[in-house]
Amino acid sequence: MNLHGLRLFHAIVKYGGVTRAAEELNISQPAVSSQVKRFERELGIVLFGSEGRKLVLTDAGKHLMEYAERLFMLELEVEQFVEDMREGKKGLIRLTATYLPANFLLPRWIATFKQTHEDVELVVSTSNTQMAFDQLFRYEAEIAIYGGSGVSHPGVHWDNLFEDEMWFVVHPDHPYAGQNITLHEMMAEPFIMREKGSATRERLAALCTTNNLPSPRITLQFNGLNETISAVKAGYGANFISSLVVREDVNQGKLARVYVQNVQLQNTIAICTRAGEQLTPAARQLVQWIRKEALAMHSAINH
Length: 303
Description:
Blueprint (H helix, E strand, L loop, with lengths): L2 H13 L2 H8 L3 H15 L4 E4 L2 E4 L1 H29 L3 E7 L1 H6 L1 H11 L3 E7 L2 H9 L5 E6 L7 E15 L9 E2 L1 H5 L2 E5 L4 H12 L6 E6 L2 H9 L5 E4 H9 L4 E5 L5 E9 L6 H22 L1
């Protein structure tokens, strides 16, 4: 079908005549008339009759106008959809996050983002570091929010948000609570850690290797941060963890920090994406939002 002819026909009916349709479409009146007559010939049906000098729709014209209205309304919806997608008002974002940001940072960031981006669908998965990067490279996620040592990873673009300290923590009644001890003494303690593949666990092992110490004794393992913290609060073992996770518990006396000599490690919170790829508009807006929220949160902690 000649859609241009259909559009002219629709305009004539919508605006109540050839003259007004020509003005609205910025086309000469004779051109509109001749092209609509050609459109009628192409269709093989009569669309307009006349009552004196007034054009009126035939029954076929009335039915065609109903289809034209639906078609051009759908066109407007498509245009609006494309515009919303282009502006980041709509879209689907698949995001993966390691346990630290997933449990302690993302819920607030995403909740505030959704208040102004209701039509953006977010699918969030929580995983350890290795799984997060696997999802990124398998195109199962567009963005990975990472908390760890910040080591480089081939094919990944890193957008560092901020850093926080890594702490050793124990139960407040532990003999080492609040004490300044050596790494050798600390490593003699049983540790409660996350599963293999966790960046923090690998970092603790690397710390031992660097200082020529045996691997840490991980006597209890969980697949989540909250479980490991709860076990230490219950009075067993030690944990090596981001200060973001336990700062409040330490301040409230539910956990105690152990000061290990010559160990001052930082934990990097970063947004990771596939290198060389452009994010969708909605994902770009989410990244910008996270940057803003992270900056505000980090400033509040430091002050």
